[in-house]
Each structure stands twice: as C-alpha cells, then as structure tokens.
Amino acid sequence: MIRVGVNGYGTIGKRVADAVDVQPDMELIGVTKTRPNFEADAARRRGYDLYAAIGDRLPAFEEAGIEVAGTLADLLDAVDVIVDCCPSGVGERNREIYRAHDVKAIYQGGEDATVAEASFNARARFEAARGADHVRVVSCNTTGLSRVIAPLDETYGVEKVRATLVRRGGDPAETGRGPINDVLPDPVTVPSHHGPDVNTILPDVDIDTLGLTVPATQMHTHSLNVTLSCEPDTASVRELLREEDRLFLIPETAAIDGAGKLKEFARDVGRSRGDLWENCIWEESINVVGRDLYLFQNIHQEADVVPENIDAIRAMCTDESPADSIATTNRTLGVGLESMASRSDGGREPLVADD
Amino acid sequence: MIRVGVNGYGTIGKRVADAVDVQPDMELIGVTKTRPNFEADAARRRGYDLYAAIGDRLPAFEEAGIEVAGTLADLLDAVDVIVDCCPSGVGERNREIYRAHDVKAIYQGGEDATVAEASFNARARFEAARGADHVRVVSCNTTGLSRVIAPLDETYGVEKVRATLVRRGGDPAETGRGPINDVLPDPVTVPSHHGPDVNTILPDVDIDTLGLTVPATQMHTHSLNVTLSCEPDTASVRELLREEDRLFLIPETAAIDGAGKLKEFARDVGRSRGDLWENCIWEESINVVGRDLYLFQNIHQEADVVPENIDAIRAMCTDESPADSIATTNRTLGVGLESMASRSDGGREPLVADD
C-alpha cells in the first residue's frame, strides 16, 4: 500500500483525498488545513485524520473543537508521497520541507514547471514521472488540452493548435473574485502562457493560446482549432476522440447547452460534488474544414486533474503500466461518462471502493 | 436634404435617429414605435415626431398621453429613405410596404442578406450600395470583423481568418435574456453563420467563426486570428490598424481591462449613451507569430453599426465619395477615440451638429 498524504484540503485537495481513499493500492494517511474552517470540519466528518499545516496554529483547531492528529511534519513522517494542493506558489516554498522529510511530492499546475523533475499527464506523458521524487501535475486547462491534442497528434499529426480559453472567473466558493458582467482579456498579451505549459507535456506541438475571463464559475470553455497534417473526415475524428476514456463526447440528444446542464447531469448520475473528470466535448461542434479541426470543450477546473494525481502517484511509486494505472483509476472513480450515461445503475456504483 | 425616417425606435433605431439628426445633409422626419413605452416617451422628449408603427394602435398612444404625428404610412409618404430598425425578420416583412410607398430602405444585419440588393460596410463595401433602393447594413459582429480584416487583406493578404466570438447574452435593457453563470456554445455547430456573413462584405476571405454566449451585457469580445500571406512585424500591423478611423487601439497606459472600463471611458468623454462606434482593440494583444496575427477586440453591439447606417444613406441617395461621407459622419458624431483621448475638450464638441 502506498501511504499518501494531502497537504492542503481545499478545492483540489479534498477531491484528491477522496480519490486516494478509494484506490485499492493506496492508503490515505491524512490531510492538512491551515485553519479550522468548514473544510476542516468536513474532513473530520468524512473520517480523515486532520493535521495542522502550520504547527503553531494547533490551538486554533482545539478552540474550534476540531480534532487534529498532529502537524504537517507528523504527516510527512508517516507517508510515502505527499500531494501538495496548496495555493499557487506555496508548493514551491514547501519543496524543501518535503525534501527534508525524504518524501516524494506531487505539485499542482499553479506551480512553475521548474518545481519538479517532470510535468505529468497520464494520457500523454506518464513515463516521464516514473520513479521521480518530485512531479507536477499540469493545470486543468493544460490537462484538458493535452488529452485532446495527444491522440490527434498521434493519429493525424498536428501542424498548429490555436485555442481561445474562455475561463471561469472563480470557483463557485470563491466569492471574492470577478468579473461581474464583463469579459476580460486575461492575459491581454497574446499568446498566453497556456501554450508553453502544454509544451511541458507535448514539447513538439506548435500551439498559440489566448485567454479570456468571464462571469461564470462552473467550468472553463475552450474554443479549439487544430490544423492537422492531413484531412480526415469529421466522423473519423469524432470516433477517435470517442475512444479516449477521459474525453466525454456530449451527444446532441442529451440537450446539454452549457456547464449548468453538464453539472446537473453529473449530479443526477451520482457524481460526488457533481465532478466532471473528463473533458466534455460537444460532439456536434467537432468539425473538420479542410485540415482545420474545430471543437468546443468544457473543462471542470476543480476536477479534471484529480485522476491525473492518482496516476502520478502510481508512476512515481510503482512499476504499473500506464494502461493498468489509468484503468484502475477510471474504474475506482467511475471515470467515463459515455458508458455511465447508458448504464442502468446511473453510475453510482464506482464511487464505492472495490478493494 | 435627404429626408430620413426610422422605423423602430429601439436599441439601434434611437441611435440612428440621433445620428441622422446631426448630419448637415439629412433631416430626421420622424420615428416609429409599436407601443407607447419609455422609448416612445423619450423620443417625444427629444423633440422627434413620433408615428405609430401599427395603425390601429394609435389610441394606445393617445391614452398614454404621448403625442403621435400619424402612422408608419404617413411617415413613409414624407421620406426619401426609411431606416428599418425592427427586430430580426420584421424588416423583411416590411419590405413590401416600403416598395408600395416607393421609398428607399435600409435593413439591419438581423435580416438575411437576400432582403436587399447589397450588404453594406462603409470601409470595405461602400460602392455596392451606390444608388441602390434596398441595402442591408451588416450586423455588429460582421461590421467589426470587416473593419479589421479589410485593411489587413489589402496590405498583407489574408490566407485564413479564425475568430471566436464571445457574445454578450443580451443588451443591458434585455432583462429576459441569459445565460446567468454559464458559457454557451452558440451555435454549438462549427463554423457559425458569422463567417458567411463576413463574405457578404469580403467575398474572397476564407473565414471560420465560432460563437459563444456569456453572462455579460455590455459588449461582444472577439478573439481573432488572421493567418496573413506574409510576415509583417507586430509594430507595422499596430500602425496599420491605428490609421483606421473606426478602430480604436486601447493603449496599455489607459488601464482598460474590459468592457466596463471601456464604457466608463466613453461616458467620461461625453459620449451619448456611452456609445462606442469604433472597434476597441487592445493594442497589447496585437501580436504576429510567424504569419499568424492575433488580437482581442470589443464590439459595442448597440452602436458600431450606427455610423454605417449614416454612410449607407449617402451611398444610396448621393454621389458623395466614400471618404467624404465617412469623414462627415465621423466628424458630426465624434467617431475616433484616439484623438478624443488626447483632446483637451474631452471630445464633447462633435456631438453638436455644425451645419
């Protein structure tokens, strides 16, 4: 059993903790919080051992009546790998602590690529993390782009990618963020940093990205153009993408017009927190014009990196094949909405660990 | 003097009426409304003669205490040209009425191109409307795309245009429209109808467009990619676009990050209704990567077609040159924000007619 800790039980950390908890080959040792807020309370209610991320804040948890098992240092002494889910930039500052405790560490995409030996995406760059001590799981947007570009590049060759990323202003719980009733070029300079980040996963892909931020909280939306090296027909591309197990092709019959109905669907089929781990691609939008492929896809910024973190743990700590790791992750979490949509049990069963 | 009427004193019609009213060679005979609502009241307060668009609704205006000068038929008998600013589809139904009264007619971009003899954009396709009886001024988005593509095509050659149109969900006064907190592929099929509409103005340009709708009301935002036939440097492209008098290059020093500050600027300099007749292009966003030009531009959906309607009237009713007509329109309205931004009088003077 791989002993795993999660440093930072926030938006990503809570989901990674849940995912680790249902893996047959992993044991969730505990999670950390800096403050005894509602998330700390929820972690305890879920039965997770809670550690104070900052040692001298232990009394605050006691005063709030929330039981803690120790501090981050105690957690680090008890795990093989720590998944850092702290806010951007904090992960890099934590790196020396992890090294001092001689634990492997996974960082999130908010950190610079230089924080780790390798950037990771299970579909496109699993082996780069094999046996590594410090690995960075790329951001939600980079994960979403890599998953769809990789099979296109392997099958047709990619000459150029141009993507406009219409980004949610903040997560649903981030009440302090904007914009309200506006669309912001963000960053206003073009190309944005997202393209170079994709190159940490797919170094040879020529990609220019543009970022906008809009008054929505639920998901990112990508307007994607891929100029291919050949001219496949639209039906072939749809079939190629449909075969990918972390891409969900939204069928026209589903009558899903945006993130609201997508997440309603996820909740209706029993997904924890209404999470969508898959890229959600409107099948109707997939179209090839000459060598230009276009599509719209939605990315759940809180969720799509969660299965990637699980696979990164296996790449770092085992010799399991990419295919076996991905299959285990998908099965235990219930990744794969197309099969879920057609399943009679509504997809609830995979949320129960089968070990 | 060209005698002009406006059929439909709504979002576009009220602005066209104001613009006609300050032209030295035009006389605003009157405007129509179907109902005696706040806009009808405002038309009278501005001193415009008001006509009932539907004859049998005359009593409703009398009951509301709003004076009317007659019906649409009376207005049509008194004008040389009628500017139809009715909701999409109504313009086409009105065409026979205009023909019966032997008046020239301008339609808006919500109508199919087949409604008129020619589609019009002052910068790119002025002469097509010369002497015509029925002309369609293309939509706000098509106007915005045509204005920026035309000089690029003339100067560098355009190999392909790919544009993602991030559209406002509704105008500020359209309280019944959405989305709230969502981003909708709209239409979900790609390419969207906007590209073919640009081809009514620039028939030889290869263009694919993608449409999204977001929870914002103030302006459309275009994420534009133009693959050029050569590799100009970024500075040259910026200068080329800066020279265009209906393009406003937002300087970095202005610290304008979105539509909110853009419209605040327009109000601060005294623009009627805070209108922005120009494409608003973030100068920092203009960048050439190889032969790929990128930029972000905002389009004020309520306003950018207004000067185009004025120029269309001159193309249909006079032999004035495109340059002279555009210059007169720009001077009388005060089009041109770059000069306005640097003018000591804050740009208020042009709103007064100088005839």
TrEMBL record, chains A, B:
Keywords: Cytoplasm, Glycolysis, NAD, NADP, Oxidoreductase. GO terms for biological process: glycolytic process; lysine biosynthetic process via diaminopimelate. It is found in: Cytoplasm. InterPro entries: DapB_N (IPR000846), GlycerAld/Erythrose_P_DH (IPR020831), GlycerAld_3-P_DH_AS (IPR020830), GlycerAld_3-P_DH_cat (IPR020829), GlycerAld_3-P_DH_NAD(P)-bd (IPR020828), Glyceraldehyde-3-P_DH_2_arc (IPR006436), NAD(P)-bd_dom_sf (IPR036291). One of its GO terms (molecular function) is NAD binding. Residues 2-140 form the Glyceraldehyde 3-phosphate dehydrogenase NAD(P) binding domain. It comes from the Archaea. D-glyceraldehyde 3-phosphate binds at S139, C140, N141, H194, G195. Its main location: cytoplasm. It catalyses: D-glyceraldehyde 3-phosphate + phosphate + NAD(+) = (2R)-3-phospho-glyceroyl phosphate + NADH + H(+); D-glyceraldehyde 3-phosphate + phosphate + NADP(+) = (2R)-3-phospho-glyceroyl phosphate + NADPH + H(+). One of its GO terms (cellular component) is cytoplasm. NAD(+) binds at T11, I12, G110, R168, Q301. It is an enzyme of class 1 (oxidoreductase). Pathway: Carbohydrate degradation; glycolysis; pyruvate from D-glyceraldehyde 3-phosphate: step 1/5. It holds the Pfam family DapB_N. The active site is at C140 (nucleophile). Belongs to the glyceraldehyde-3-phosphate dehydrogenase family. Homotetramer. HAMAP family: G3P_dehdrog_arch (MF_00559). This is Glyceraldehyde-3-phosphate dehydrogenase. It comes from Halorubrum vacuolatum (Natronobacterium vacuolatum).
